[in-house]
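Q:
Just now I want nothing more than another pair of eyes on a protein record. Here is the record:
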Amino acid sequence: MRYTGPACRQCRREGTKLFLKGTKCFTEKCPVERRPYAPGQHGQSTARRRKVSEYAKQLREKQKIKRIYGVSERQFRNTFEKVSTLPGITGHNLLAALESRLDNMVYRMGFAASRRAARQLIRHRHIEINGRSVDIPSFQVEPGQEIRMRQKSRELTIVSASLEQAARGSTPAWLAVDKESFSGRMLERPQRTAIPIAAQEQLVVELYSK
């Protein structure tokens, strides 16, 4: 089951900002800064523990990546199993597959302020791929495919506000975005150096290799 509670609670559990609320994470003071310990009645006592096992480190890294992309445990495990058979570094392939999800692409292109908002746009059929409506957030986008906002959806307030905020940042080099036509496309599969998240994906590989 997908987590639907407060986003900041997840950040506090991982001990770092996961930027799950989009632009609000940049404009608001995050609770993880005010209360740098896990939520719950035992959060502060847990923070005082010095020793952390290797398994705990691996588990926390998996949870962090899973929460950043907003995927369920089953989706995450299925994605790992698929990329584990591909050539190359499994951890890098895992992040590339997560970045290639349609909800993440819509977010990276600036059409949504967060991945959660992107999933809502997709489920309500506001997004098209190569001219066809797609309502599956986990859809794997291939290089060259065009992602476009439907004509009737371009005047949505959340879309225009997100594009305005996105204009202040930078678009990953593996993406091409045309904000005037509300469209974009993946130029190539993202390389690890071009994926802007702080994660130790090798720990996830070690966890699932046991």
Summary: The longest helix spans residues 54-69. The radius of gyration is 18 Å.
